[in-house]
Design a protein that fits this description.
This protein is of the alpha/beta class. It has one domain: Class I glutamine amidotransferase (GATase) domain (Rossmann fold), CATH 3.40.50.880. It is about 30% helix and about 20% strand. It contains six helices and eleven strands. It has a seven-stranded mixed sheet with strand order 2-1-3-4-11-10-9, sandwiched between helices. A two-stranded antiparallel sheet has the order 5-8. Strands 6-7 form a two-stranded antiparallel sheet.
């Protein structure tokens, strides 16, 4: 039987996207838990070999309006403490940061602007996932919030141009990325140009149509850049499942 990853999804327009394709191609099965549609968050992984927590427009501390965030943070903490494979993408990364004792807040440098260079730290060179990635390749970032302080035992693996955490390792088999390796151009447009407010000028001056066009023009390069991350994480999940 193939190892199955539990995927926590927060919104319809924030699916696993390309990452799902890559994990399935690498020999995993996916159990997508649509938390926003009322499916309960489990207290721990039982029949699942790993946990993938996706992004969403809500904040990591928006418990009053997003009732599944506290149990999601609790599940993340349990999974990481048990040494089971975990990957958090954008909001998932922020939820892990908070769950383990770090802090998340609005980025004082403003909203990220789409294509952003991946800038690994020296610690990434020996990381099981990030040593496979090329410095300077483009990543899709679209976020207001950032990890302002990582948990005590976390390691920064990459920094955004503004100096904020771009990727981190939370444990031997646990990682978080502030960017969106899963985001196809269609997914990115659902966050930007497809919104009813897209024609309105943004206070931060971001031209969402130009940003979305740039993401679409980089689709092939983005797929080449980030498939190795998915395949390496899939290997971690499979190895953990067999041990």
């Amino acid at each position: 039987m193939k190892p199955t990853v539990l995927v926590v999804q927060h919104e319809d327009n924030c699916p696993a996207g390309w990452f799902a394709d890559w994990l399935l191609a690498a020999g995993l099965e996916l159990d997508v838990l649509e938390a926003h549609r009322g499916r309960a968050i489990p207290a721990s992984l039982t029949d699942h070999a790993g946990l993938l927590v996706l992004g969403g427009e809500m904040g990591a501390g928006d418990d009053a309006t997003t009732r599944w965030l506290p149990p999601t943070r609790a599940l993340i903490a349990t999974v990481i403490a048990a040494g089971d494979p975990f990957l958090g993408i954008c909001l998932g990364h922020q939820l892990a940061t908070v769950a383990l004792g770090g802090t998340v807040a609005r980025n004082p440098h403003g909203h990220s602007r789409g294509l952003t260079p991946f800038s690994p730290t020296p610690e990434a060179a020996t990381d099981p996932l990030f040593s496979a990635l090329e410095p300077g390749v483009q990543a899709v970032q679209w976020n207001n919030d950032i990890a302002t302080a990582l948990p005590r035992r976390a390691t920064t693996l990459a920094l955004s141009p503004d100096g904020s955490v771009q990727a981190a390792r939370f444990g031997p088999r646990a990682w978080g990325v502030q960017f969106h390796p899963e985001a196809s151009p269609a997914i990115f447009r659902s966050w930007t140009t497809d919104k009813p407010s897209a024609r309105e000028a943004r206070p931060d001056g971001i031209d969402v149509f130009a940003v979305a066009d740039a993401v679409e023009g980089s689709a092939s390069a983005l797929r080449r850049a980030w498939e190795p991350l998915a395949r390496r994480w899939a290997r971690v999940v499979k190895d953990a499942h067999q041990s």
